[in-house]
Amino acid sequence: MEQSRTSRNKQSNRWKRNIKYVLLFLLIIFISVGSYLIYEVYTAANKSYQELERADNKSDLRKEAITFSDDPISMLLIGVENYSTGGKDGRADTQIVVTLNPETKKVTMTSIPRDTRVKIDEIEAYSGYHKINAAYSFGSLSGYGGSKLTVEKVEELLNIPIDKYVAVDFDGFRDIIDTLGGVTVDVKEGFWEENIYQNNERIYFEEGPTHLNGEEALAFVRMRRLAVNYTYPREERQRQLIRAAIKETISAGTIFKANEISTILGKNIETNLKPKEIYHLERSYSSIGEDEMETIHIEGTNQRVEGLSFFIPNEDNLNDVSEQLKQQLELTNPQKSIPTIEEKFDQIYKEVNQS
């Protein structure tokens, strides 16, 4: 009897040791896989990293460099249309200024209309007035830097510093949405748009909650030529999609897709966000809700100038938008002396009236 009990105790001890070894093995696997995923994302983020070659790596409109974890920051999201140019020197068809305040946890999104008329004098070959979406291609073609010139034009338009930027092309956009498993948006009005990946076959969007894959999501934010764009503008659809993508990104399963996401980061995204800053953003804003996200609109009219159609912002509204963003960034007066919004509008309207 005693021998039997001893035998059972030995078996029990072996079983406990085996369980410990199994748990230890699983822990090692978990740590190894986790470390591998972190390494993959870190490596890809480094490949995507592209500074703007600014003095002290900060905007000229900043008196001091920001402390990323403490200060409110601004970020420009740039969607690059380069499929028609073979993946090179595309246009910045989407430009959204995002402000993030780490203390209030508030986020604002301001869409810059792609046809906004701006003056480009940084590059002699393209000197003059152009649509703001052309800044990216001019900067890229000249070697000045597509993202650099785009950031500078947005800074001049809104009279605020742009601290960080993220530029993603159409392929990267599509692939990220697919990797996340798609996104769900509430389509407010039905419409259709061509699918550039499927011989321009039409994709139809019906009113109501709709789950979109990457190609559908791209078509959803691209449509701008139909009449419905006036009542359901692309800027609104772009913000809807960003909110939906954020919701999917912070879901529990995203970490297991880190390897796929890292591949996309390395190929299709350019940013001056460092890997540790990306990690901080995820940690600080992953639980943000709809109540903390505010949309700020730029109002204006479409006008023809010298035979071309431009978007001309309303002067009072643009000044108000600038002040709202400065408040979110806790700014007073910018460091660099640049033309005020009123001075810029005087020049714009003078040239519009002369044409």
TrEMBL record:
Pfam families cross-referenced by the UniProt entry: LytR_cpsA_psr (PF03816)
UniProt keyword list: Membrane, Signal-anchor, Transmembrane, Transmembrane helix
InterPro entries assigned: LytR/CpsA/Psr_CW_biosynth, LytR_CpsA_psr
Species per Swiss-Prot/TrEMBL record: Aquibacillus albus
TM ranges: 21-39
PANTHER family for the chain: POLYISOPRENYL-TEICHOIC ACID--PEPTIDOGLYCAN TEICHOIC ACID TRANSFERASE TAGU, POLYISOPRENYL-TEICHOIC ACID--PEPTIDOGLYCAN TEICHOIC ACID TRANSFERASE TAGV
Record protein name field: LCP family protein required for cell wall assembly
Family: Belongs to the LytR/CpsA/Psr (LCP) family.
Domain Cell envelope-related transcriptional attenuator: 91-249
